[in-house]
Amino acid sequence: MNQDIQIYNTLTRKKEPFQPLNPPHVGMYVCGPTVYSDVHLGNCRTFISFDLIFRYLKYSGYRVRYVRNITDAGHLEGDRDEGDDKFAKRAKLEQLEPMEIVQKYTLGFHDVMRMFNTLPPSIEPTATGHIIEQIEMVKKILENGFAYEVDGTIYFDVEKYSQTHNYTVLTNRNLEDMLANTRELSGQDDKRGRLDFALWIKAKPETLMQWASPWGPGFPGWHIECSAMSAKYLGQEFDIHGGGLDLAATHHTNEVAQSEACNHHQPAKYWMHTNMLTVNGTRMSKSAGNGFLPGELFTGSHPLLKKGYSPMTVRFFMLQAHYRSTLDFSNEALDASEKGFKRLMNAMSLLPKITASATGEISIGEIRKKCENAMNDDFNSPVAIAELFEAVRIINTLYDGGLKITADELQKLTELMQYFIYDIFGLKDEDNSNTAFNEVLDMVIALRREAKENKDYATSDQIRIGLQEIGIQLKDSKDGTTWSKS
Prior knowledge:
Layout: E1 6-9, E2 14-17, E3 25-30, H1 41-59, E4 63-68, H2 86-94, H3 98-115, H4 131-143, E5 147-150, E6 153-156, H5 158-162, H6 175-180, E7 197-202, E8 218-220, H7 224-234, E9 238-244, H8 248-263, E10 268-274, E11 277-279, E12 282-283, H9 294-299, H10 311-319, E13 327-329, H11 331-350, H12 365-376, H13 381-399, H14 407-424, H15 435-453, H16 457-469, E14 472-477, E15 480-485
Parallel strand pairs: 3-4, 3-9, 9-10, 11-13
Antiparallel strand pairs: 1-2, 5-6, 6-7, 7-8, 11-12, 14-15
Helix pairs in contact: 2-3, 4-7, 7-8, 10-11, 11-13, 12-13, 15-16
């Protein structure tokens, strides 16, 4: 197991040595999507970032149970436990059953995650599949005196909790400032305090998704599902809890409060958050007109994009920024990532064509150590990628005959590139993975070789120039002809 990993902990606001509660086992819970609409790029960045963390922890020798939930109930439109249920509203708009909406957008989410080549989580529980666990947790919070009932709805009592606990421990916000910035309760509001939030919500007769409970028909609040499901699959205390930075102030703050009110201790040892997305320096949002979906990014159909970018180009682009840094989308940045990704894939295609020598001038161990040191530093993928490009330079020089390498070091170089590019960064060659393309190209190269043998140099040159125009560079040597992407 890797003992050198440092993680930035939102809870303590500093980097800490990663010391799992029960090594080599690691429990990691990440707040998943709310499946009433298409997944947005902010979600994608979060899940790609935690896919990287999942992959690197496994590479480092840990046995990781990765739990990522699906929110398919209890997410209201308002920020004060009011408004319509988002699933019910979408179901009415599309004239479908709520669970048809859930199925439709869950499948769409999985399709996008496959395109980004993310590994599936170990467990993917749903809110609707864990109603009993949520009810039991609400009952315990009530018994412990940190919640109250008003006509079938159960509210968490933030003021009562704050008398003995630090409600803002995760964000270090001032509770008085939060109260001052929260709207006054209306005369018809059932809550006792402005910061109180619903654990269980009484259903109206026309509510489409509702379940029986000790307090009458209703449905769970949004926050309780993650507390209940993380405890069920990872225990009341586990290692890592993650999600987008936008969840820290409310959703994760309420998760901490619920779990402590129920189980008397913090649920997670390390809290990790990914930062926001911007477009040309402006925060990405639908209201600003600069938010685009993954499909629009792949096809280039959004007016802010000059062309489409492949899923692996976008994944590589996201990995070139640290997960805690703001990530700015622009055509120029995506173009640069596209070129960098092609350089990596081209180097991978050259590796099998390099011939080892009896003596060598290259030692790969130092490069691998630098890549691991970068990832050990709070999963610093951009620094690790920069180190990998030094390996790319070496591969290109070896291929051109400017350096020699022994068979043992060539094997280490191959393993380094495969581990980091494929296994850890989760990238794949979108062109060279096409077997039919490779077979056709081999056939064209064979036709050119036959033309040269027949002294038909005009045809030979025509094939070479034609391939060059579509980005395929041929190189002739005494061992035959090889190709690479230019």
